[in-house]
Structure formats: structure tokens, C-alpha cells
Amino acid sequence: MRKFALITGASSGIGLSLAREFAAEGWDVGLVARRREKLEQIGHEIEDRYGVEAVVIVSDLSQPDAPHAIVEACEVAGRQIDALVNNAGAGMNGGFLERSWDEQYGFLELMLHNYLKLGHLVLPGMVDRKFGRIINVSSVSALLPISPAHTRFSGSLYPGIKSLLVRWSQSLRLEHEADNIHVTALCPGFTLSEFHDVNGARSMVSSLPSFWMQTADQVAKSGYEAVMNNIPVRVTGAWNKFMVGLNRVLPDPVSEALMRAQTKRMKRQLEKAPETA
């Protein structure tokens, strides 16, 4: 039987591209998202194109019991989880006090708690079988100074959550080094996907230089290659790698000043965007 990869947030963007990438490499895939009709369409496309099995699992990962239900659905389908891709998520507009605590807690459930829960559920089987691959989709924002754009479009918790995912991935990789379990924190930057439509950042993103942007397929290929080669942190795109590398050598005040200057430029571009659209 082919190995089985479970991908959350598989109905669009990076998650969809990762599902296709695993399928292209001969993996059966479990597709997790909220939109059944969309998932079924994608599942048929993947099966027809790659000759693998696609298992559709409809689930809302903002709900606390979602991870248990997802793993149970895999078991009912007769599949063990050989690879886990934690990708589901979204931004949350507004500052910390502009959102209720219930909204903030729901954001944590979706973006962090359920990543950890799924990892805790699938790791024992991977350890027993001495094989596992885990990709946690983080962000280049975890490795750069905080930008006001994070608060405006993704929420003040977003960079911290993504930073924790990087450190957790590194920790898991070391803990299970002897178990043939590879763990990668995938850190994309601006990516052409529905993510920016959902969080209201489309105008800003559309005004950015093209060399800042990557396609979801490019990110997925880079992430797959990284986890298969046991690379703990993968920053995608030459520009993002340059920015992260520069941040590592510059003093913090200088990096923060550069980020503030860049934010001001982006704000001016955003203000002009409606006129030039």
C-alpha cells in the first residue's frame, strides 16, 4: 500500500499545492478542509491525474475536537498517517484589543492548538513504524522583525504563533532523530493564494514587486524537498532568504528601523492602489 499524507487546509493555496506535490511523488493523500464540494472536486482531479487515492475529510480546524475526528476518519478509511502537513489557517484583521477574547482564542485553536494536537496524535504511530514526515507551515514573519502589517492583516498573535511553530518543529526533529521522523517548518513569504483575499490584504499584495512573490506550487515543491531531506527550517524564495540572512547579521535596532521604513513604503503603495487599479 502506498504511503499516506494528511494535509489540512487542502482546498486552496499552499495546502492544495502540497497535496498535489505529495500525490505527484506517489503518495495517497487525505484532504482536510471545510468545503466538501471543493474537496471532492480536488480529490477526483488528483486521483485521475496521479493515479493515487484521495480521502476527503470535511472538518473545521477552529473546533477543539477536530484533530480527534480527523484521525478517526483516517482510521475508518483504513489508513495510517505517514506524513502530516499542518497548513490550515487564516489571518485575523485588527489589533489585539479590536477583537474579543473569544475571537483571539478561536484564532489560537485554528493556528496553533490543533497543529500541536494533530502532531501529538500521529507521532506515536510514526515512532512505532520508525517512519514519519511532518511539515508545519510557518511564515517568514517568524524570522523577521515585527511589522505593523501583521497586526493589520493577520493579527498580533500571528508572528508569535509562527515563531512557536518553527521552534516546535526544530524540537520534534531533534527528539525523534533516531526514529526516522523528519520535521520541517516551512516559512513562505508573500504567496499568490486566497489567503490575502480572506484577510483583506489583496490590494497591498498586488502592489508589491513581483520578485517578492511566489506561487503556491513553488512553495510546495520547496517544502516537500526540505522535509524529505530532513531540513528543519525552509525559507522559500531568494528575496525571503536574503531578508532573513540580512536580519541575522544586522543589530536589532537597524533591522527594526528597516522594517518600519518598508512598512511606510507599503502603506503609501496601498493608498495609491485604488487609483491605479
Task: Please give a structural write-up.
With 277 residues, this protein is α/β, with parallel strands linked by helices. The chain contains 11 helices and 9 strands. The chain has a single domain (4-276), classed as NAD(P)-binding Rossmann-like Domain (Rossmann fold, 3-Layer(aba) Sandwich). The chain is globular, with a radius of gyration of 19 Å. It starts with a strand and ends with a helix.
Task: Give a short overview.
With 277 residues, this protein is α/β, with parallel strands linked by helices. 55% of the residues lie in helices and 14% in strands. The protein has a single domain (4-276), classed as NAD(P)-binding Rossmann-like Domain (Rossmann fold, 3-Layer(aba) Sandwich), CATH 3.40.50.720.
Task: List descriptors.
seven-stranded parallel sheet, Rossmann fold, 277 residues, single chain, alpha/beta
Task: Draw up the topology in text.
Blueprint: E1 4-8, H1 13-24, E2 28-33, H2 36-50, E3 54-58, H3 66-76, E4 83-86, H4 101-129, E5 132-137, H5 148-154, H6 158-175, E6 181-187, E7 191-192, H7 195-198, H8 202-206, E8 214-215, H9 216-228, E9 233-235, H10 238-249, H11 252-276
Helix pairs in contact: 1-2, 1-9, 3-4
List the domain count as a whole number.
Answer: 1
Question: How many individual helices?
Answer: 11
Main β-sheet, in a few words?
7 strands, parallel
Q: Per the principal axes of the C-alpha atoms, what is the gross shape?
A: globular
Q: Count the strands?
A: 9
Assign the CATH topology. Rossmann fold
Task: Give the terminus-to-terminus CA distance.
Answer: 51 Å
Could you tell me the mean pLDDT?
A: 88
Do you know the CATH architecture?
A: 3-Layer(aba) Sandwich
Strand content: 5-15%
Poorly predicted regions? none
What structural class is derived from the secondary structure elements?
alpha/beta
Rg for CA atoms: 19 Å
Please report the first level of CATH classification, the CATH class.
Alpha Beta
The H-and-E topology, N to C, reads as EHEHEHEHEHHEEHHEHEHH
Helical amount: 40-55%
Assembly classification: single chain
Spatial order of the strands forming the largest sheet: 3-2-1-4-5-6-9
In CATH, what is the homologous superfamily?
A: NAD(P)-binding Rossmann-like Domain
